[in-house]
Design a protein that fits this description.
Chain lengths: 305, 279
């Protein structure tokens, strides 16, 4: 069994009338890219704030690196880097100065080279001396990642790290997260509302809603990755339906609406079915995989609603 | 701790609002001094009118010491505003900017953070009063020169020899630093309660003005509570211009003001330690 990096037991937070987090438990292991999912108001940010000691839990325990957060807060935070919600900095200072200050507060005295290196990693080295108030949201987001990594933490907690980035920026951040996990042996706790992002990056995940756990485990197990829902958009619908209904593919057909045929297939069966249709002169206009996590997520959260 | 205080001072002195106080004093003091240079003679005549029948005044009565003494009296309300402008922003400013999240996720205890900010605020306050003293006395000496200091009390007139004045001013400015530190601590306390820096500044000034009014009104009930209001001791620097100096009264004022600073700081630390950061 790998080391537990984060262990949360029966965590709750009550804000006057609202119970934002209710008896939440989760485990994150060394080397995990742990997806933290939930609709708006599910309690994700409150949980992250409790993990970082910004908020005091009403009940429950948090252990990080095997240490109690309540008792060993500073020892823990020395090895944690984080972005919490939107990236805010001292706008009247430069990115360089912000990082220098935050580095010192993190217990390191970052050299000029180290700061420039981390700014290069997020593509901001040319704007190092610009005041942060002149930065776009995307640039602040990148700077947020830079400050989270500056002190070389073992655990990186990222709350919506790609918000406000353009598609290229999102891709770069995703690649950076994977690199941190695979090459630098970091454990990543990733909260995101972009389900495809979590599906692409995370190996384990939890889905929460109304402050409680809906599902937790390995992404492949939860999504049953052996079977995918795939929509085939076909020409000559009548003949296509006849062809399918007379073949073994009928047992795989889940739904048919006009020219859209939804099959439940293993990854190997997708090209096989495509070949079968083309060989029988059925025009395949499109093959669209259904976002499995999205479906799973909606199923869980709608059921709860 | 010293490193964090340095960081806080760096942040304070990188904000333009910090310089408002220094700039305001740099404008206000010369304006008062120039006005005194033009009209001061008439004022002194008016002040000493009743005495001129019995005494003859010779020498330079309109001097840097008198002008500095009058300025110190006049700025009892202005300086607190300039102090609160920065110290009221120390915690609330972090909440407004959303930078609490950056600060509190660092491996530095909240107690250390709040204490560092508090000391940075006190250092700013000290520098502001020192700036006031340098301009008031320094510029005053250049413009007016030095001389005997005439101090009018309700029932007496005291004239201090020129050689007997400077040390009194040094102690008075030291006391003013202590008085203004109470104001800084109060603004700092209010700053821990809200997420907008305007609130602590206005509330601090409101408290000071209300306390001054309560202190000034000659009604029994107000006079009963007067000894418990810190504003009652803010102007105790005047005690250094008594002859003889009432040391016990000064020590009492110092103790009361220190007590207020400790209570205000203690409350702030307690609130900040327990605060849920939701911004």
């Amino acid at each position: 069994m790998p080391d537990k990096i984060i262990e949360v037991k029966n965590l709750s937070k009550q804000f006057k009338e609202v119970r934002a987090v209710d008896n939440l438990s989760l485990n994150v292991f060394r080397g995990d890219v742990f997806g933290f999912l939930g609709p708006n108001g599910a309690g994700k940010s409150t949980t992250i704030r409790m993990l970082l000691s910004l908020i005091t839990p009403t009940e429950g325990e948090i252990s990080i690196f095997g240490l109690s957060l309540k008792q060993k807060r500073n020892d823990i935070l020395r090895k944690v880097g984080a972005i919490v919600e939107k990236p805010d900095f001292y706008g009247y200072l430069s990115a360089y100065k912000n990082l220098e200050i935050l580095g010192k507060l993190s217990g390191i005295n970052p050299s000029r080279e180290k700061i420039i290196e981390i700014l290069e990693l997020v593509g901001l080295e040319k704007r190092a001396k610009s005041k942060v108030k002149t930065y776009s949201h995307g640039m602040k987001q990148r700077l947020g990642i830079a400050q989270a990594l500056l002190h070389n933490p073992d655990l990186v907690i990222l709350d919506e790290p790609t918000t406000g980035l353009d598609p290229q920026g999102m891709k770069e951040i995703r690649e950076l997260i994977l690199k941190l996990s695979k090459e630098k042996d970091k454990t990543i706790f990733l909260s995101s509302h972009i389900l495809s992002e979590v599906e692409l990056i995370a190996n384990r995940m939890i889905i929460i809603n109304k402050g409680t756990t809906q599902a937790e485990g390995y992404v492949d197990d939860l999504l049953n990755a052996d079977e995918l829902k795939v929509t085939f958009k076909l020409g000559d619908t009548g003949r296509a339906l006849n062809l399918v209904s007379e073949s073994r593919w009928m047992s795989k057909l889940e739904l048919q609406i006009e020219d859209r045929f939804v099959f439940k297939l293993s990854p190997e069966e997708i090209p096989e079915l495509n070949r079968y249709l083309v060989q029988n002169d059925i025009t395949v206009n499109a093959v669209i995989p259904t976002r499995s996590l999205e479906e799973y997520f909606l199923k869980l959260t709608e059921k709860e609603a | 701790m010293i490193e964090i205080i340095n960081i806080e001072l760096y942040k304070i002195f990188k904000k333009w609002r910090t310089y408002i106080g220094f700039f305001a004093i740099a404008v206000l003091i010369p304006v008062i001094q120039i006005a005194m240079l033009i009209e001061g003679g008439k004022s002194i005549n008016f002040m000493t009118r009743s005495l001129q029948q019995s005494f003859v005044f010779v020498g330079n009565l309109l001097n840097a010491y008198l002008v500095s003494y009058l300025i110190l009296n006049a700025l009892a309300v202005h300086i607190p505003f300039l102090v609160a402008l920065v110290t009221g922003d120390l915690l609330a400013g972090e909440a407004t900017a959303g930078t609490y999240r950056l600060l509190i996720t660092r491996p530095v205890s909240r107690m250390k953070l709040v204490t560092s900010k508090f000391f940075a605020g006190i250092i700013y306050t000290t520098l502001l009063v020192l700036w006031l003293s340098i301009l008031s006395l320094g510029l005053g000496i250049i413009i007016f020169g030095v001389g005997e200091l005439i101090v009018l009390k309700p029932t007496t007139v005291i004239i201090f020899a020129r050689s007997d004045v400077l040390w009194r001013f040094l102690l008075a400015y030291g006391f003013a630093i202590l008085s203004m530190s109470v104001v800084a601590s109060l603004a700092f306390l209010f700053s821990s309660l809200v997420e907008n820096a305007i609130g602590p500044i206005i509330t601090t000034m409101a408290v000071i003005i209300v306390f001054f009014i309560v202190s000034a009104i000659e009604i029994d009930i107000f006079q009963t509570i007067r000894p418990y209001l810190f504003t009652n001791y803010i102007l105790s620097w005047r005690l250094f211009f008594d002859d003889p100096i009432d040391v016990s009264e000064i020590l009492k004022s110092v103790a009361v003001l220190f007590g207020h600073i400790i209570v205000f700081y203690g409350l702030t630390a307690y609130i900040f330690k327990r605060k849920d950061i939701l911004t």
